[in-house]
Amino acid sequence: MLLPLSTEPFTAPTDRDMLPSERREFVRTHRTCVFGYRRKNDGPGMSIVYYIPTDDGELLVSTMAGRGKARVIGRDGKVSLCVLDERWPFAYLQVYADAVIESDRDLVVDVMTAVAGRMSGQPLGEEARPFIEAMAEKENRVVVRCKPYETFAQPPRHLHRNDQEEVITHWVSGMVPWDAEDPA
């Protein structure tokens, strides 16, 4: 089941690393990411996309079958999604995932509808479905189904003044399995 757009994105703590449950909540409550994948040559391919979280922890991305995101998954199902905070100071969470392509028309249209709702900030009514179905067909849309397996968090850090009295502190975040439990 696709999750609705959150009314309040999770705010990352500024004084410590995010707990595993907070990392999952961060992903569930945001809507945009930099979608990255390995290219045969050159550096990684990256594009900013809206994603749709599901109730079982997957992340769904709509794309055209002819685009690089979809084409590369056939040869290399490893992707990353750098989930972006939309508030200052910015935090981000890197999600590493195994990806497959889904072409089920109902799923494609459901994801496109959910993306349109995230773009506009409000859900679309059923009256929009025929237009979205036509667009899905015309653009040969598919869904990239991403199953996260690991995360890396970057805390939001901000310099409030530029007089060097305030020191920005940093700490090292680590890779955390997607389904890890919070420490006791």
Automatic annotation (TrEMBL):
<keyword id="KW-0560">Oxidoreductase</keyword>
<protein>
    <submittedName>
        <fullName>Pyridoxamine 5'-phosphate oxidase family protein</fullName>
    </submittedName>
</protein>
<dbReference type="InterPro" id="IPR012349">
    <property type="entry name" value="Split_barrel_FMN-bd"/>
</dbReference>
<dbReference type="InterPro" id="IPR011576">
    <property type="entry name" value="Pyridox_Oxase_N"/>
</dbReference>
<dbReference type="Pfam" id="PF01243">
    <property type="entry name" value="PNPOx_N"/>
</dbReference>
<dbReference type="InterPro" id="IPR052019">
    <property type="entry name" value="F420H2_bilvrd_red/Heme_oxyg"/>
</dbReference>
<feature type="domain" description="Pyridoxamine 5'-phosphate oxidase N-terminal">
    <location>
        <begin position="20"/>
        <end position="150"/>
    </location>
</feature>
